[in-house]
Amino acid sequence: MRPYRFGPLLLLAACGDPSHGPATASAGITASASDGASTSDWDTGEPTPTTSAGSVTASTETTTSATTADETTGTTGTSEPASGTSATDTSGDTGASDATTAVATTGTSDGTSSTSTGDGTTGEPCPIGQDGCPCGQDDLCGPGLECDAGLCGPPAPPECGDGVVEGSEQCDDGNKIPGDGCEDDCTPTPAADPCGFASDGVWLEIDYTGAFTSTNPDWTYSPTPGWGEAEWAPQGESWPEVWDIWQNVQVTQDQIGKVAIVDGNGALQIMFGIGGLTYDYATVCVQGRSYSVGSSVTFTVQNQLNDCGGVGMMANDWSIHSTGVDLGTCIVDNNEFQGLRIFASGGSGALSLTRLRFTLHGAVY
């Protein structure tokens, strides 16, 4: 063993060569100079690539060429943009591309969906079937929501007259003509009254089957919003009323039940008003029979305000008959004090009155 063979060299390596300035080194490792120049490897004598000042790199036996801007680095698998520009902007600016980022919605196994953008970011999850979120299987949505174009949301208000039954509509025949089976509020046209007249518009009915006096029948009004008992009242009153003109009409038991006997000595008159209302035509449906067992009865219904009215006839067999009278426009529009009178005018001269319905068709108010 020769302990002093490498003594001068080791001393030189440790202390450095005064003629070249201080330097540090170890076997196989070089330190980069502050000016970026490379030092030589002691084993090969070839220059070694260096990093920026203060960094240390492992030496290699060969040098590598600089990577150009359009060569892949192997680190990220993408091209590094040239200095001062972004990968999507060739204008020289450093900002991102002006193009709109595409957004995609993806369903997940836990019943939610998420939104993702072109830059790989993911938004908040959107529960399937909720407002503004994707519809579920078979286009199902949460309570009160409907599926439209793949998304759940509140249902659109129905439009009466468009031919599509939706929302609270009971019918929709594609028009807004009343009395044709489906009314202009998309409810079915009420069934015809016993005389065959349509039950549209507004109506009132008096019924003697449970009455005890001629002036106190049972009253029924059409289920028309905004026009009821108070609206039918004549001026100065709170409800319509029946007058027994000569105080001779009796309520009694007939072969068809309890009736009001209207004969040649008496007449009944319904006092009413229709302030603020117009209509198309008026009808009266009378139910009863001729009180006589031998012949039919003829009766008259007219408006005492203008003596305008019509005539009907009732048979005398022991059953309830229904006879309609078309009054046309005998009722005066927008008048608050009128009287609809009924009295026997021929035949047996005695009418057993069970019910009377008075209807203003096509009423507008």
UniProtKB/TrEMBL annotation:
The keyword Repeat applies. Residues 19-123 are annotated as: Disordered. Keywords: Disulfide bond, Repeat, Signal. The keyword Disulfide bond applies. It holds the Pfam family DUF4215. Residues 23-123 have a biased composition (Low complexity). It comes from the Bacteria. InterPro entries: Myxo_disulph_rpt. This is DUF4215 domain-containing protein.
